[in-house]
């Protein structure tokens, strides 16, 4: 999976071609509160220190459906919040790169819930609609190269390519991001968080016809590479 993210970084030219971060906030609540495979647990504010710690990290202090599922096992919820408080909020990766990793993992694991939570975050971090479309549509397997991009085995060529953009500390952060959100994507699918288990990952709507047509043709193999 890290290979898939790395190839997209190279295709984007990494940092130089990401759009500018979007001003303001577009992080309104993105849950539909549809049933999961376990009940949601949403303790009232001030009644549960673990839930309150999670609220402190959430937009507008609102717990997500993911949090409500995790809080069935409070210590798991606490551990998840501690880990992803670092991975999501306190690493040195460029925000757009971090969100590219997260969104690509969501695509590879068909985790529409994860995509819906992070598409707007990615846009705010500077990912363009065209880049989001490439993240969404790039195939998980390149038959011509014999490469399965869902593999968890990190080949040397992947890390050598990443070293073009990242120092050693950031290589660890990038690997932790890909691995951590792979766990989250599998978790939300397995427990059908917000009833999104069978919902396809959305395809971003592009306002510029020709660039988006080119991306669609390239990622679906309809043009010679």
Automatic annotation (TrEMBL):
Pfam families: CMD (PF02627). The keyword Signal applies. The keyword Signal applies. Keywords: Signal. Residues 1-21 form the signal peptide. One of its GO terms (molecular function) is peroxiredoxin activity. Residues 84-136 form the Carboxymuconolactone decarboxylase-like domain. This is AhpD-like protein. It comes from Lentinula lateritia.
